[in-house]
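The pair is quoted verbatim as follows:
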Amino acid sequence: MKFWIICAALVLGFLGLSLSGINEYVFFAGFVILQFVVLATAWNILGGYAGYVNFGVPAFVAVGAYTAVVLFKAYQAPILVQILGGGILAGLLGLAVGLLTLKLRGIFFSIATVAVVFILETVVMNWRYVGGASGLQLTRPADLMFFDSYTRMLFFVMAVMAIGSVAVARYIQNSFLGRGLRAVRDSEEAAECSGVPTLRIKLIACVVSGALMGVAGAPMPMYLSYIEPTSTFNLSYSISALGMPIIGGTSHWMGPVIGAVLLGTLQQIVTVTVSSELNVLVVGLLLVFFVVAAPDGVLGLVKKWKQSSK
């Protein structure tokens, strides 16, 4: 109950901020950080809970983004319909990928997910309706309801989605599904012998994880007013989605949130003060540090500190 009270308070707080006279860049950067929260949380459902490392994050993000573009271009669909459509199609992609690849394990599964990225990117680059390789310029709708700008509205929408994704991850962690995924991560053979329906729960995790990634990608075309394949299918999404849960801690739903806020904020600071080209370097340095010094992430460090202080 307390969790939902906190969520409601955060939503109201974001709404209040969106109506105040704050610099526009705060909302521009805040959108990215909140998107990181959704991506990190989505990745952790399969990668953290079950131990299946998914490098195909850009494919799911792109499916959400290009679904939104098609819905907007063909039907002038509002942003909420775009997000819903992107989530559904990305979830179906997760189901398809799961059926084809979940019998693979370890590095073989990871390589298969990377292949999905290149296959879909090739398709989109040859699809003229969505701009092909040169991309597509988009015009934002004029209707902003009670928001001062479209960026502020998208910030609020992403805030709601971030809270929703964390709520989903928290529920899964404490449910039979979460216990089954952790059993798969520890030993899939032992889990099967214990009666855990491993294939079914992995497929559910694939669908939920993929749908959340698609939801995170759907507002991007309107956020940027432009979309093109190279940046949309950028493998840096995979690096960030992998890095954030590792930095925060993969064993708990809070870990990806901590990692996303920490990494996203640091990247935005580096972008403004130094150069946007250093973002990947920041991720790499943090990953090296946490893998060597704190393999259990920030949550692991806090746990060790509490134990040592007793």
Q: What stands out?
A: The longest strand covers residues 136-137. The mean pLDDT is 86.
